Amino acid sequence: MVENPTINQIPYTLESGILPIGHLPWLTDLAYQGFHLSYIPMNAAIVLAQLFALVCVLRVGWLKIASLMYEALHIGIYILGGLFFWPWIWSNLTVWWAARTAKDGFSWNTKLACIATILLGAPALHINPAPPLAWFDLADSRQVYIEAVTKDGRHVKVPSAFFSSHSYSMSHAYLGAQAIMGHYDHTTLASSMSLERQQKDGQCVAPSTLTRAEPETAEAREVREAQLSRFLIAHHKKMLARDPTQARQSYYFRFHHHPSNPFLYKEFNALSLEDVVGYQQVIESVCHSMDGGHVEKKVIARDTEYGSVL
């Protein structure tokens, strides 16, 4: 609760192009400054809210309160952190909808079954481990994104939403997640379970000073880059062949956990795919900070992997 500065999600997700308020620097700065002052009590409140799940089933009224509380939590996470947990929002809504007209409480068999299901999901029991709901948010981390390279030599950042059904995988950078010499190890949206990473975070330490995964071999990198190139060529052709009567940016409406903010991609939105000659994957190890609602980046390592679509 005390050691995890969850405010680090704001600069990272803004740079990733998924922060829903990121196109409004004044609001982003207000959120960042406010979050900076309140993240410790907010962390404590979130832990208590999660523990409340164990007992909220004991009373129908508590269950309704919990459902609305979790809705507010997930909506807040989306606004301040760019993570859109829409299946959880939908699930909490259905629980509240079912409970809103309930007049009688649940039987003790039902209550115990609900509590036991939560307890048996504890990862330490290794029975049916639930996803961990706690991690460290890092300021010093790896960013991976795709740029479109145009005929006139411009490099235009591409939203992960552009990749349609593959947008979730691209936002996770699965084709840029391998350990690379000189870079920070990959983390999912700058979240890590490593206490070492958290303790050295914010100091912009050299990646070589951290415990590292085994680096990718030259042969493995060659195979990965070939796979990436084939994917980008095939996807570019698919997008070029789309029916021109369709809404051009309809891919922004695809639901997943990391939806792109279209207002952060004005240059790409105005770009004709006919002008694109290739794409490159950019892998950066970056120390992130904020200034006036804008991201300040210190890039300590940068790799690019280019593929022509001609």
Content-based structural category = alpha+beta
Q: How many domains, as an integer?
A: 2
Strand content: 15-25%
Question: How many strands?
Answer: 6
Structural shape: globular
Mean pLDDT across every amino acid position: 91
What is the helix fraction of residues, given as a range? Answer: 25-40%
Number of helices: 9
- Name the poorly predicted regions: none
Strand order of the largest sheet: 3-2-5-6
Reported for the largest beta sheet, the result is: 4 strands, antiparallel
List its traits:
310 residues; alpha+beta; 2 domains; four-stranded antiparallel sheet; two-stranded antiparallel ribbon; 6 strands; globular
Could you explain how this protein is built, in words?
It is a single chain. The chain is of the alpha+beta class. It has two domains: 6-125, no CATH class; 139-308, no CATH class. 40% of the residues lie in helices and 16% in strands. The protein has nine helices and six strands. The protein has helices at residues 9-16, 25-52, 60-81, 86-99, 108-120, 167-171, 195-200, 218-240, 266-269; strands spanning 136-137, 140-150, 155-158, 191-192, 276-291, 294-308. The chain has a four-stranded antiparallel β-sheet with strand order 3-2-5-6. The chain has a two-stranded antiparallel sheet with strand order 1-4. α2 runs antiparallel to α3 and α3 (60-81) runs antiparallel to α4 (86-99). The radius of gyration is 22 Å and the shape is globular. The mean pLDDT is 91.
